[in-house]
Amino acid sequence: MAEFLQFAFSGLTAGAVYALAALGFTLIFNSCGVINFAQGEFVMLGGMITVFLSLAGLPLPLAACLAIVAVVLVGFGIHVFAIDRARDATTVALIVITIGASIFLRGAAQVLFDKRFHTLPSWFGDNPIVVGGAAILPQSLAVLGVAVVIVVLLWALIDRTLLGKAIVATASNQLAASLAGINTRLMVGLSFAISAAIGSAAGIVITPIMFTSYDIGTLLALKGFAAAMLGGIGHPVGAVVGGIVLGLSEAFSAGYFSSQYKDAVALVLLLAVLFACPHGLLGRPSPERV
Amino acid sequence: MLNWTKLVSLAAICFIGISAPRDVWADVKIGAVLSITGPASFLGDPEKKTLDIYIDDINAKGGVNGEKLQLVAYDDGGDANAARTFATRALDEDKIAAMVGGTTTGTTLAMMPLFEEVEIPFISLAGAVQIIEPVRKWVFKTPHTDRMACEKIFADAKKRGLTTVALIWGTGAFGKSMREQCVAAASRSGITIAHEESYSPRDSDITPQLTNIRGKAGIAAVINADFGQGPAIVTRNYRQVGMQLPFYQSHGVASKQFIELAGPAANGVRLPASALLVADKLPDGDPQKPVVVAYAHTYQDKTRQPVSTFGGHAYDGLMILVEAAKRAGTFQKSKLREEIERTKNFIGTGGVVNMSPADHLGLDLTAFRMLEIKNGDWSLIE
Amino acid sequence: MRTILAHRLFPLLPVVAIVIVLPACFPSAYYYRVAALVFIFGLAALGLNLLMGFAGQVSLGHAAFLGVGGYAVAIGPARLGGSPCVYVIAGALLSGLIAWVAGRPILRLKGHYLAVVTLGFGLLLAIALNNETGLTGGPDGISVPRLVVLGLTLRTAADWYWISAAFFLLGALVALNLIDSPTGRALRAIHDSEVAARVLGVDVAAKKLLVFVMSAAYASVAGSLFALLNGHITPDLAGFLRSIELVAMVVLGGMGSVIGSLVGAAFLVILPQTLAVLHDYEHMVLGLVLMLAMIFLRAGIVPTLSRFVTVRPA
User: Fold this and answer.
1) What are the pLDDT digits (tens) for C66-106?
2) Which residue of B lies nearest to A222 if distances are taken between CA atoms?
3) Do C124 and A267 touch (CB under 8 A)?
4) Confidence of residue A290 (pLDDT cuts 50, 70, 90)
5) Distances C280 to A108, A117, B88, C275, C276 between C-alpha atoms, Å
6) Looking at beta carbons, which residues of chain B come within 8 Å of C140?
7) CA C20, C26, C32, C34: dihedral to nearest 10 degrees?
8) What is the pTM of this model?
9) N or C: at which end does chain B have fewer Cβ atoms within 10 angstroms?
10) Per the omega criterion (within 30 degrees of 0), is the bond before B134 cis?
């Protein structure tokens, strides 16, 4: 039983990290159908900027806030200087632009910061909480908590505000949305800014667990994207569910099956889910356009 | 039709672009294809910094045999294909006299055949034993092999009476290669590997694997084979699940960064590493002391970063090359190669090097020191 | 003259001319190697371009097929004996089979599903290549035996320049013929509107499947050529980053453009070589150039330039 609990705690820790990475994909995909390959770099920048500001002597909370502001500016900048300039291009072309942005941000980070690994102090100390013989670090709970807060805020934004409705309208039909008086370009820009904020917050809260360096973005984006697809892309709760399911399946297959093939087991699960319900666990089929 | 001429000229411009920076001065060029970025940047970055610092230093002191050295460095990003293309470029275009580089075993293995064909000396900075076994005429290397790290750990474990161990390794190139060598060396050293676990690069939590190790009866010690941030996570998780067994890391964590990342959990961890990490703590009579103290201080002063043994490998490679060229009086390739092979009693950061036609590494187990982390710092045992 | 210009194979003539003339300005083997890599990745990008540009499907795991072809010529001759040439074909058949099995259920769906499923398959293959050290050599890679044809060992970059150029031209010839066939017209109809094509009696899923199988075979042959050129391969060949690079080559060169595949490959193979002199700033500039190229040549290099050229004089 203690083993089972430990595997579950491990899965929750990894799953919360994937969920935070996955959440960032939701809004941009919702507003313009683009899978933002630079999302992992938002996560990286959030952690790295916080680390270097706090090394420069700023108190940690202030460093974290400044880092989020800086990454939001970066996200908005990518929209203004790249995505918006090519707004009449195909979706695939826009995706290639985000790939370029991701290479650029990684390259910039290695010049501005360094190529070493860094960490931040845990929020609630390093003493594990022991439940039934299994141990979980308080920081894992913090990551889960932040994921929940972000989901609630996103849900409130999309379902409860006019701004959210405008973003959704932009996603389903840009032309119709602009005819209805929505500034669709601004909506896409906002979705980039908000996704950057989500990414940087994720980067700050996961750094005490898995450390940060200029190149963590690629793998986080990959896992986050897989989690988002598993849960149903464009769906905030789906992103979290997808992340947790992915994390748990990795942890249980590492514990009970083979640690060498745990990633493979998680991938097979992903493929099986997509074959069975192509829109992910919580996704809804979109109406077909003729 | 105009578009085709356009495309052709575009292609032409690109091709001219490759060869744009032609140098006019006839310095001796030293090639360095390193993994400065990518998954092995943890190793490649200090290597590049070291070569930069010491080539400047050598030139400031008048060069070698009256000739200045020029570093031709390329970043392969850890990709074996890119490494091979850059090696071709260094050999064909830059006409390098010798190469100090090849950060990973994969990139080294991809480049090696070229150097054998063109017959230019190649001093690799990668770990695996297959680079020098069987011996290849033009290929040398400076870092201790994985096999030596395993043997050193096993010897220490045996001395403490810990003969049944568990192995946990990262599935990246470094951990995988060391795992193979440890499995091969175990029975010879009188050690039984009773259980194995692994994890992927950048995994954020490794407690399930450690829980399984904890659940196996009879295990007396745990060995972790990996480099980079993974071992720091393993170490923290090790304490998190309350494991008290003696814990060994490999030479892959031989950098102060490991202690910074793992925090108090690192205390009590043992690892084999070169004398470089404990430069200031070596007894005064130690022959390596002057070399490692000088390198450690130079590196830390110039880069403002803690010294790691990986940069030390690049230092050793460059200095073995430079001393061979001084003895030969020339950078002529076959004379240079013969002199590299005749390196005797060279005191480097990795140990005392004695090469021979049958041994293109020239280090033995005494090159490794067994260290233990105490109160957040390295300490020598033995 | 007009009939020649209008002929569907006309775009290949300049490529043939470039292939023949270029070596005259190659000062060293390094240039042959870079050019050979351009043709090899051009071939893989061409296959992917058929899928993306004509069937409208994105594959994010296409490098897996490079891996199948590459490891076929690395493992096959050593384990089972026989000439590597046999394994180039065997690898292509195996890749085609994998694509057929995986593609059948997926290609009935719409949207990004092929992208995610190919991504998953690509990652699975990369994990297997990495873990099965006994067979594949693990992360450090495996050496590939040199190809011997009629008693001659093909080892120089110049040999492989001619071979890879020939393979690219062959691939382009097949592609251009396919585009001009009834299947090609059906594919274009699918790309414009799947529903309309289906109403007109096009078996959409079967056509898509055919193209997916072809594109897998193209990538596999490219992977085999790459392995034989290098003499050593690592799992990086089949990795996620390589798949992304192939997609970028297609989009940058121009979706649906045969020549665009070659130009896209040339761009992404040569650019890092040119930028290597920038050292630390290399990646920043690479990302910037990629973004700028996509912003200003958003339909792809070849289609944008040719539109620019053909519209003006008219």
Assistant:
1) 999 999 999 988 888 888 889 999 999 999 999 998 888 87
2) B202
3) yes
4) very low
5) 9, 18, 21, 10, 9
6) 104-106, 109, 128, 130, 173, 176-177
7) -110
8) 0.90
9) C
10) yes
Which residues are CB-neighbours of C20 under 8 A, at least 6 positions away? none
CA atoms within 13 A on the CB side of C73: 32
Q: Say yes or no to pLDDT of B358 above 80.
A: yes
Name the residue among A37, A82, A271 with its Cβ closest to that of C295: A82
Q: Is residue B247 very low, low, confident or very high in pLDDT (cuts 50, 70, 90)?
A: very high
Q: Kindly provide the residue ranges of all beta strands, DSSP E only, lying in chain B, ordered along the sequence.
A: 28-34, 69-75, 98-101, 122-124, 139-141, 164-170, 192-199, 221-225, 247-248, 270-273, 346-347, 352-353, 369-374, 377-380
> Six-digit token pair at C291?
């973004």
Q: What is the DSSP string of B46-98?
A: HHHHHHHHHHHHHHHTT-BTTB-EEEEEEE-TT-HHHHHHHHHHHHHTS--SE
Task: Tell me which H or E stretch contains C153.
Answer: strand C152-154
The backbone torsions φ and ψ at residue A129, rounded to the nearest 5 degrees and listed phi first, read -90, 125
Asked whether the beta carbons of A197 and A70 are under 8 A apart, the reply is no
SS3 B271: strand
Token couple for B245 = 């067994």
Q: Look at C230 and B110 and tell me if their CB atoms are within 8 Å.
A: yes
The number of residues in chain A equals 290
Burial class (CB in 10 A: 0-12, 13-18, 19+), C89: middle
The answer to whether the Cβ–Cβ distance between C276 and B81 falls below 8 Å is no
Strand-pair partners of B270: B248, B372
Ordered DSSP codes for C186-246: HHHHHHH-HHHHHHTT--HHHHHHHHHHHHHHHHHHHHHHHHHHHSEE-GGGGSHHHHHHH
Per the structure block, which two tokens stand in for B370?
């067994």
CB B117 within 8 A of CB B43: no
Sole residue written with tokens 């990652």:
C123
